[in-house]
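In response to the reviewer comment on reproducibility (Comment 2.3), we provide here a single inverse folding case reported in full, input and output, so that an independent group could reproduce the run without further information from us. The structure tokens appear first.
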């Protein structure tokens, strides 16, 4: 399954539209403003007035960049950036998965031992951030989307420092 994430550029808060590979709307992620730390709420497409299906929250009291992922009001994992020089490596607490990335190419893979669960590819030469997620069929796409959004939040926090 493929999902496409597109950041809305001229928006007061962070806003991402997520589409399936056939072009249908899947999810909308909306950032909160005037909060301590970065926060995103993920809604099903067209249901922004309903309860969010996922939430990504920055944890401020941490030595490294850390974002918690909450799906349907249950804390699932924390995405934690490892301290490295030239690569962006992330670890997921509570899941047997890890993310490997290429700092310069913005290409990431979500791995479980030697099995690829998801690949994240940044689309170049677009207005705003755009990503393609290629998700394995036996994995929850909402969890993979939340992990990809948390990685983008980590990169955004790192750039703002």
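Designed residues, in position order:
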């Amino acid at each position: 399954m493929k999902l496409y994430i597109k950041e809305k550029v001229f928006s007061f808060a962070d806003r991402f539209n997520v589409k399936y590979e056939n072009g249908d709307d899947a999810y909308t992620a909306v950032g909160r403003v005037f909060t301590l730390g970065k926060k995103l709420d993920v809604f099903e497409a067209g249901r922004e007035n309903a309860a969010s299906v996922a939430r990504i929250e920055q944890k401020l009291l941490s030595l490294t960049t850390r974002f918690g992922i909450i799906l349907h009001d249950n804390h699932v994992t924390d995405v934690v950036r490892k301290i490295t020089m030239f690569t962006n490596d992330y670890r997921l607490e509570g899941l047997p998965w890890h993310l490997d990335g290429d700092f310069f190419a913005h290409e990431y893979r979500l791995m479980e031992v030697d099995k690829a669960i998801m690949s994240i590819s940044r689309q170049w030469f677009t207005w705003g951030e755009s990503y393609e997620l290629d998700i394995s069929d036996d994995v929850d796409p909402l969890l993979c989307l939340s992990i990809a959004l948390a990685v983008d939040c980590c990169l955004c926090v790192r750039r703002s420092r």
